[in-house]
């Protein structure tokens, strides 16, 4: 989890600071009003997300995606045992 940057009282993170997988995932999740632009020292940062939104995403959305992806991997190496049934 990234630390928040603060500019004029706004806590935010830059999407470009995330790894490639997280960048793709947060862009797919974020709505147009979630990604904000911040003008800082004559540079326009156009890939910012408020820290509160990033925290929600990392704790609720991205975590759930990782769990869903990793669950099949954990069971894929296990052998399936067959069960014999007797019918009358």
Structure description:
With 88 residues, this protein is of the alpha+beta class. It has two helices and four strands; from the N terminus they run E-E-H-E-E-H. Strands 1-2-4-3 form a four-stranded antiparallel beta sheet. Helix 1 (20-29) crosses helix 2. The mean pLDDT is 85.
What topology does this entry show?
Blueprint: E1 5-7, E2 10-14, H1 20-29, E3 35-40, E4 43-50, H2 51-76
Antiparallel strand pairs: 1-2, 2-4, 3-4
Helix pairs in contact: 1-2
Count of individual helical segments? 2
Give the radius of gyration: 21 Å
The count of strands amounts to: 4
* Percent of residues in β-strands: 25-35%
The parts where pLDDT drops under 50 for at least 5 residues are none
The main sheet orders its strands as: 1-2-4-3
Indicate the mean pLDDT: 85
Could you say which structural class the secondary elements and strand pairing correspond to?
alpha+beta
Helix share bin: 40-55%
- What order do the helices and strands follow? EEHEEH
Report the biggest beta sheet as strand number plus sense, adding barrel if it closes.
Answer: 4 strands, antiparallel
- First CA to last CA: what distance? 59 Å
Approximate shape? elongated
Key terms:
single chain; 88 residues; alpha+beta; four-stranded antiparallel β-sheet; 41% helix; 25% strand
Summary of the model, kept short:
With 88 residues, this protein is α+β, with helices and mostly antiparallel strands. The chain contains 2 helices and 4 strands, in the order E-E-H-E-E-H. Helix content is 41%, strand content 25%.
